[in-house]
């Protein structure tokens, strides 16, 4: 089973808080820039738990030069983030929005879901999308914990779209 994601569910913030954060050095156009990134609350637990249920794929609209060091930091050598797709794998709309075509991950979309804070990103695979609020700094955020029962139950359905595609079904309270 595949599980694709944008950075919205992993949660990177630019706000200093109790968790220590991490400095990422990005090289673009021959120039080096330092970024400070912070983990969304419970992201380590979330990744450890969900990686036992799914094959995790990062599908981000970020550039590879920025995303790779952040993903490396999150993975921490565990090898739980199996595949990475970046901005060049997205379709760009005329308004600048990025769309993620999940068929790039797996042809059979019955076993693929995308957790993303931007519903436009899964608009061509709407029945595979799981919305999550974006995160920038709230240390009491529990959005990742709230997703665990849903992701746990989706493991046992033959087609995630039959559950996620139900009209009126909402994962956001």
UniProtKB/TrEMBL annotation:
It comes from the Eukaryota. Pfam families: NIF. Gene3D superfamilies: HAD superfamily/HAD-like. PROSITE patterns: FCP1. Residues 1-154 form the FCP1 homology domain. One of its GO terms (molecular function) is phosphatase activity. InterPro entries: Dullard_phosphatase, FCP1_dom, HAD-like_sf, HAD_sf, TIM50. NCBIfam families: HIF-SF_euk. This is NLI interacting factor.
